[in-house]
Each structure stands twice: as C-alpha cells, then as structure tokens.
Design brief:
single chain; 470 residues; alpha/beta; Rossmann fold; Dihydrodipicolinate Reductase, domain 2; 2 domains; nine-stranded mixed beta sheet; six-stranded parallel beta sheet; 15 helices; 37% helix; 21% strand; binds 6-O-phosphono-beta-D-glucopyranose
C-alpha cells in the first residue's frame, strides 16, 4: 500500500466536504499505514498553522480535536500554482522519495500543466499513481485530448478515474444481488424484464456551482458518469471473473451497445427541464437562471442494442430540486405468461418489481402477488404484497473512503477505464447533438416538483406512491 497522498485542491469544496472527512474516518479506524502522510496542496499562500486553522473551522464541529490533531500530525501544507509546472516541480520534488498517489481534485483545464509539474518533480514515475476527479472532458473530443495528455506521461495502470458512485456500498450491492442469486440472474433479460428505471433525484440545487453547471448541465454532470455506470452494472454480461479487467470489459461492451440518440427519437426518448422558483423541504428557493439552454433535470429512454436487452427501455431520470432525495433502481418484470385468476384480480395485478433504493436509506423491495392479505377462504383473491428488506449497514462510509483505500492499494476495479469513458461520451455526444438538431426545449418546473409535466412518462409509479410525491 502506498503511504503518501498528495492532495491537490486541498482548500476546495470536495476536499472539505468529503476528502478530509474520509481521511479522518480512515485514520480513526486505523486503516492507513503507520507512516502515512498527506501533502495538502492549493494555491493559497497558507502555512501549516493557517491551513489547520482553516480546516478546523470547517470540520471542528463534527470531529474531536484529537482526531484533527492526528490528521494534522501527518499533514503538511504546500502552496503551489498548478498552472505553473516549473514552480510546482520546485515545490514538490522533495516528496519524490517514495511512491505517491497524487489526487487532482481540480478543474480539468489544470490537468495538463499539473501532469507536467508532477512529472518534472519525479512524482509520476511508476509505481506512482494519479487519481482524477470529473469532469473528464466536456465531450468525446475534449475527453480524448485529456487522455492523450495523461498517456504522454502515464500508463493506464497508473490512472485512477473517480466516479464516486462506484464507491457506494449499495451500488456494489447491485452486482452482488444480480450475480449472487439464481432468482435474479435467471430472469435478467428481455424475455422476463419489461423495463428498468434508474433514478437519482436530489433536493439540492446548483448552489454555488452556477458557472460549472451552466457549461455542463445534468446530462454531462450526472448521466455521463454516475447514471451510465449504474446502467452498466445492471446491464452488463456476467464477467468471467470478478477481477478488474473482466468487469471493466463487460461494462465497456454495454456502453458501446447503447443506441445513439437521433434527432427524430429525441422528442419521444428525452425530456429536459430547468427548475424555477419553488419550495423544497418547506424552504422557498430561487430558480436556476444562469442560462436558458441548460438542463437541471433530464429524463432519457436508453436502448441497449444487444441480445440480452433488445426492446427493453432503460429510463434514466436525474434532477435537482426534486421533492425528495431518492436514488433507486427499479426493475419491472413482464406479466405472467397465462392468467389463471379472475377479472377483478387482473385489475389488481401488479407486475413483479425489484426496487433497490441506494440512498438515502438502503432498502430492497420485491413486489409480488399473493393471497395472504385476502379472505382466509380464498386462495384466488390476489393482492399485491411486498418483501421488504431494510439494510442496516455495519458502518456507513463516505464513498471516497473506499476509493482512497483502493487507490493507495492500487486496485482499479472501482475506477473507470479509458475506453469506458470514451464509450459513455460517444453516447452523450449523440444525445446533445440530437437535442441541438431537434431543438429539444428546456422546460420549466417549479423547484420541489418531479420535473416538468412532460417528464411524467419517464417516472416510475413507485416514485409517486412511495417516494413522497408532493
Ligand atoms: C456529483 C455532481 O458528481 O454528484 C453533483 O457533480 C451531484 O451535481 C453529486 O450533486 C451527487 O452525489 P451524491 O453522492 O450526493 O448522490
């Protein structure tokens, strides 16, 4: 396990919200090597004391002083300007004495000069590793340009592209559920599955990230990475082994089988929305008004053109300022082949449904039909019922904890490979080109609603019955 972490963007939002809290948890649980050290790097001309005071002010309410002291004992702050490769190399070469993981939690326009600086400082020589945060480009061409820069100094085996959804335990559980149970794997295909819904709804708005969002929108911010990774885990073929490349090979194949969106399909298979003033959790909130042609909500019907999924719609829905924070996957099965019960039962009949909620709670529900709830004399009075499992995870971890440990250990399984990123961008580019050519409008929705009216056909009924539709 590598024992040095160079954290670039150490005073940024991600670092204070997730990365330092993750490190505090890993230190608390003694999951890091005894001689583990952190080099916190950002542009501000802080010294150690000023950096510590800054971080203590942000995290002090949530952590005991002793935990922060332990973090600071291992942390050194170094000011460096990433856009100046020479100055950066001068500031950092003294850390090249042991193999390090450099973590770029910075905007992508700094990746190229940061790589040059790291290389000049001797910090990219194998077995050193580089962790990158999204966005990895704005479209396929810019993603390929970033990749070419990385590959001029690094081998793919040294590059760790973060998609923090892959570090979430309930996301990993999707694979375990699918591949560890005959019950599901046997029917995991077009003959038995009617549709798949993947929903990531947030109550949060764009707050504070208007500039970034105005350039990216929900399609690039959420679908290109998190939603397509969820889709890939659900739809991929079972890998021959649970090793890094077997899993990534299968994910890539599914992403490449996504049918490109065409301008003529855009009207039926997509909807875009932007939140306006409204009320979320009882609070009045302002609408997103930074740009008129950028979506904060997207609904897509994706088609996977392969043997297993031909004709099965995958509906992807994500939005900001929704009525509740809900991420879930809903697999709806086809009706039974032959109906033996009466016409009233047929009216009550519900398709079997597997509903896996990823957050905020971790629950698994299996919707079945049975007669237990009916009169004790009639086995024929079918009613919908549900097998419910509420998970009590032993310890709720921030997704980044798992990913940091894996990067330090050199395990790339939960990181995204170059060809997966490319395949995802290729499909996203088809969607944005289709929108452009078809002139797909961005429709308004009030904050606190489930998106524009036109989004109704994209929302599963479970969301409206259980998910707290307001
Ligand atoms: C990030 C997006 O990648 O994921 C944010 O940039 C989004 O816009 C966030 O809010 C959602 O992550 P989580 O873990 O809160 O569901």
């Amino acid at each position: 396990m590598h024992n040095s972490l160079l954290l670039f963007g150490a005073t940024g939002d991600l670092a204070q919200r997730y990365l330092f809290p993750s490190l505090l948890h890993l230190l608390r649980d003694r999951l890091l090597p005894e001689d583990f050290r952190i080099v916190a790097i950002a542009r501000s001309e802080h010294d150690d004391a000023a950096f510590q005071a800054w971080l203590r002010e942000r995290l002090g309410d949530d952590y005991e002083a002793a935990a922060l002291d332990e973090l600071f004992r291992r942390t050194q702050y170094v000011p460096a300007d990433l856009s100046d490769a020479d100055a950066m190399a001068a500031a950092l070469s003294r850390f090249a004495d042991r193999p390090a993981v450099s973590y770029l939690s910075t905007p992508p326009n700094l990746f190229a000069s940061a790589c040059r600086g790291l290389e000049a400082a001797g910090l990219l020589a194998p077995p050193s590793r580089l962790v990158l945060e999204k966005p990895l480009g704005h479209d396929l061409a810019s993603a390929q340009a970033i990749d070419a820069t990385l590959k001029s100094t690094l081998d793919e085996s040294q590059i760790f592209r973060i998609d923090h959804y892959l570090g979430k335990a309930p996301v990993q559980n999707l694979l375990a559920l699918r591949l560890g149970n005959t019950l599901f794997e046997a029917v995991w295909e077009r003959r038995w599955i009617e549709s798949v819904d993947i929903i990531v709804a947030e109550t949060a708005g764009v707050d504070g990230r208007e500039g970034y969002y105005a350039d990216y929108g929900a399609l690039r911010d959420m679908v290109q990475n998190h939603m397509l990774q969820l889709l890939a885990l659900i739809a991929m073929e079972p890998p021959a082994a649970m090793d890094t490349d077997s899993i990534r090979d299968e994910k890539r194949k599914v992403l490449r089988a996504l049918r490109p969106m065409t301008p003529s399909a855009a009207a039926a298979d997509s909807v875009r929305g932007r939140y306006r003033d409204g009320v979320v959790d009882g609070q009045a909130v302002k609408g997103f008004s930074h740009r008129d042609d950028v979506e904060t909500f997207v609904g897509l019907r994706a088609w996977i053109d392969n043997w297993r999924w031909a004709g099965v719609p995958f509906r992807l829905v994500t939005g900001k300022r929704m009525p509740s924070r809900t991420s879930e996957v809903v697999v709806t099965f086809k009706p039974v082949t032959h109906w033996l019960f009466g016409p009233d039962e047929r009216k009550r009949a519900r398709a079997n449904q597997l509903r896996v909620r990823l957050q905020p709670e971790e629950t698994i529900e299996l919707g079945l039909m049975g007669s237990l709830a009916a009169s004790e004399w009639s086995a024929n009075e079918l009613q919908p019922m549900s097998l419910d499992l509420a998970m009590q995870p032993p310890k709720r971890r921030i997704a980044y904890e798992r990913l940091m440990i894996d990067a330090l250990k050199g395990d790339q399984t939960l990181f995204v490979r170059d060809d997966e990123v490319e395949a995802a961008w290729r499909w996203i580019d088809s969607v944005s080109a289709a929108w452009r050519e078809a002139g797909t409008p961005v429709r308004d929705y009030p904050a606190g609603s489930w998106g524009p009216l036109e989004a109704q056909p994209f929302l599963p009924r479970t969301l409206t019955t259980h998910g707290g539709r307001k």
